[in-house]
Write a structure and sequence with these properties.
Layout: H1 2-21, E1 25-31, H2 38-57, E2 66-72, H3 77-90, E3 95-98, H4 102-115, E4 119-121, H5 127-132, E5 141-143, H6 148-161, E6 166-172, H7 175-190, E7 194-201, H8 209-216, E8 222-226, H9 231-241, E9 247-250, H10 253-259, H11 262-266, E10 274-277, H12 286-299, H13 305-324, H14 329-337, E11 341-342, E12 347-349, E13 358-359, E14 361-367, E15 370-377
Parallel strand pairs: 1-2, 1-3, 3-4, 4-5, 6-7, 6-8, 8-9, 9-10
Antiparallel strand pairs: 10-14, 11-12, 12-13, 14-15
Helix pairs in contact: 2-13, 3-4, 6-7, 9-10, 13-14
Amino acid sequence: MRLMSALLAVGYAITVSSAFAADPVRIGVTTILSGPNADRGQSEQYGVELALQRINESGGVLGRPVEAFYADNAADPAAGIAAAKQLIEQQRVSVLLGALVTPVTRAVMPVANAAKVPLVIDISAGQEFVDAAGSGGYDYVFKTSPSDGDVATAMMQWLKTRNVQRIVILTDDNDFNRANATAMEAAATAANIRTLSSEIVAKGTTNLAPALERLTALHPDRIVTLLSVSSAAFFRAYEQSGEGIPLAGRIDFASAIANLSPQFMAAGGLDQAAGISVFTPSVPTPAVQAFMTSYRAKYGLAPTQRSIFAFEATQLVVDAIRRAKSDDPAAVQQALRSTQMPSMLGGTFAMDEHNHSHTAMQIVGIRGSKLAVLDQVGK
């Protein structure tokens, strides 16, 4: 009996070793790996590698290990095109993930589509990518994370349930925030919410009191903020104004806590604020908390939304390869179109006619001095 057990164990080890001696299934990733924003690409890479660790520890796919091949796009469209071509033509990858920033993703889409290699846009948020994919003409392009339009629609529909009828919008002057402001205004109109004013903060502005005074004079039900570099100045002006009009939008709560006084917070000055988040560590589900624990254990860092989007996108493409029983790009494309993989964040990765899946987002706010999930939307 002991001899038989030993032989079976040796046979199993040989089988596993033989499988993992085979050529790997190849996934290409083009992201930012150099320059001032390399940390963003690193968080995407970390998400991919954590997913692959789990996948390969569970036997890989098609009896083979899965390996990611990376090509730096340096946040530059020309470099992104070269990176995509390198991964497709030299590394012969079955699928691409990328390309993190809007201009590079825009440049890479036609390259992947012409080569008939699936491109899974796991992070770039632009609604333009949704519109262009699938029935928009790019059959080999897929988008898995929420778009600007998804975020805006979910936010405005939630505000509508709170009887919000009039909003103002305040946004920083950059591509990401301006796109979000445009999406919020369109979603507000669709929800029969009136946008009284949409104001852009000029670059270099350090005093937001005048802008806030103009907006509050319109007596909106909510101030929708879409701020990044101006967040600190806004919250200081917000406390000083004493108006107390509730906030909504993509609120930087970390900046709020850092810049609002303890007295203001203790008095409930931010208790009515409700922002929308595509990922927050406060999501209480076991799957998200297990991901958080594994990520911290592996990297000594807290994950970003880029990390979890890349993690799930990697799982999604491997699931497609498994169901296709092939790593041929055309077979993977067909399998991606029929995917039904649950998301850790809620909802299911199920592609619509634009090859875009709609997963859950969170309405978040400060409760008891901590960031808390107030509601789940968008799934």
